[in-house]
TrEMBL record:
UniProt protein name: Peptidase C39 family protein
Upper lineage: Bacteria, Bacillati, Actinomycetota, Actinomycetes, Micrococcales
Assigned keywords, A-Z: Signal
Domain Peptidase C39-like: 240-395
Region annotated Disordered, chain positions: 33-60
Signal peptide span: 1-37
Native organism: Terrabacter aeriphilus
Length: 446
């Protein structure tokens, strides 16, 4: 969790830019998560069409997820070459790579999309890495390619190829990219989209990346500040036994990665879900953590923070990087999508799958939290019989104690700090063989 003692000097986070309706009122409050994206300008409202604050119905929330895996991911030959200078390598060395490319089919979601978030599960042995881009059509005209991420499993100090990174400064008249989210400009939508993934291996080596899945969530959401309380679903009274980790216990740890645990809500939440599935890092993998901090009780959180870190965003809250990290664990899968309501979230809990959710709220807006935030991640682990939400909140009560993490939040309050603010963003992390609940037939969002 990061604090903002000098409000005038703190730039808005991309979560505020992307639609936190409470964002402007949050300056000076306690913030949780990576709320200091460097150089993020204030942008025009990217949601279309503009609607009054009427408590839009879930059916007004256009969300469509598409993914490819297995034989659908056949990649061409390494027939191109590319030079790349890692912007976070102090030596500024030019390195040459052989490049192979995978291009998705063109996707027409059936609505004009205003935001898109991609996901990928990949292996990047040695010094190899991947670049994920998207292109589309707006008003009958093709767009350029927008970079959604340059990614590898490890940073160079761990033997990886590059410092994983988002790319700033891509905006044009049609769209821009806020760290991990393509967002169209006011007055523009994309009628279709297409992903391009480039696999990079050092010239003269056979260190070849392997794609296991690639996908994206496209959406067009109503401009509403509130949603009605959703009807209870299939998870009434069910609470999953997800371990509790507090980000507060990591304050001051490894400040080179997003100022230490104070801002580690996302990797802490991801770590809780991986621990639930028994898929966290082994003791030998986290040895570098315990060697530096022998008193560390939850080294998997520090390990995750390093391995989701976005060196341009300068934070550990990049949504696809967290999902991609989770999928580097044996037999695990991770992706990012949006849900329309807590009724849909209940389908996942009923299937035994906890969800990492992205929320924002003013202090006092979510009873029992005890803080305010312009961007925070927490895990939905279940529901009471009355339909309220049981969460593992890594910043709960701002107390450095894992026992304080489990909390119950009012259903309607939680829904309104989640759905209108992040658009209902979730990380879905589960073993590859664990079946997902049935997705909605119309506009499948998983």
């Amino acid at each position: 969790m990061s604090r903002q003692p000098t409000p005038a000097l703190v730039p808005p986070s991309r979560r505020t830019v992307l639609g936190s309706t409470a964002g402007a009122a949050l300056v000076g409050l306690v913030t949780a998560g990576s709320a200091h994206a460097t150089g993020t300008p204030t942008a025009p409202d990217t949601r279309h069409p503009s609607r009054p604050d009427d408590g839009a119905h879930p059916s007004d929330r256009h969300i469509a997820f598409r993914e490819w895996s297995g034989r659908e991911l056949r990649v061409g030959r390494f027939c191109e070459k590319r030079d790349y200078v890692d912007p976070h390598d102090p030596s500024a060395t030019v390195r040459s790579y052989e490049v192979a490319t995978w291009v998705s089919p063109v996707v027409r979601p059936g609505f004009g999309l205003t935001e898109l978030v991609s996901s990928w599960n990949a292996d990047t042995p040695g010094r190899s890495w991947i670049e994920v881009t998207v292109r589309g059509r707006s008003g009958g005209t093709s767009t350029k390619e927008y970079v959604l991420g340059r990614w590898c499993r490890y940073d160079p100090e761990q033997g990886g190829g590059i410092h994983r990174t988002s790319v700033n400064g891509q905006g044009d008249t049609v769209a821009t990219v806020y760290t991990d989210t393509l967002a169209t400009r006011t007055g523009h939508v994309l009628d279709e989209w297409q992903l391009v993934v480039r696999l990079m291996r050092p010239v003269g080596t056979h260190e070849t990346p392997r794609l296991r899945s690639v996908g994206a969530m496209a959406s067009a959401l109503p401009d509403t500040e509130r949603v009605p309380r959703s009807p209870q679903g299939r998870a009434r009274g069910r609470v999953l036994d997800v371990p509790t980790f507090s980000q507060e216990t990591h304050i001051g740890h490894f400040p080179e990665w997003d100022n230490g645990g104070e801002a580690w809500c996302s990797p802490t939440s991801t770590s809780m879900v991986l621990a639930y599935w028994g898929a966290g890092p082994r003791r030998d993998e986290t040895a570098w953590v315990t060697q530096a901090r022998p008193d560390e009780r939850d080294p998997q959180v520090d390990f995750a923070a390093r391995n989701v870190f976005d060196y341009t965003y300068d934070g550990a809250g990049n949504w696809p990087f967290n999902a991609a990290y989770a999928a580097t664990r044996p037999r695990m899968r991770g992706f990012v999508t949006r849900l329309r309501s807590l009724t849909e979230a209940e389908d996942f809990i009923a299937a035994g799958i906890p969800l990492v959710t992205s929320v924002s709220f003013e202090k006092g807006e979510l009873d029992g939290a005890g803080y305010g935030t312009n961007g925070h991640l927490m895990v939905v682990v279940g529901f009471t019989r009355e339909g309220d939400v049981v969460c593992n909140d890594p910043a709960s009560h701002l107390v450095r104690d894992n026992r304080e993490v489990r909390v119950v939040y009012d259903r309607e309050q939680f829904e309104n700090v989640w759905v209108p603010h992040s658009g209902g963003i979730v990380y879905v992390i589960h073993p590859e063989r664990h079946r997902l609940p049935h997705a909605p037939r119309h506009e499948r969002n998983w």
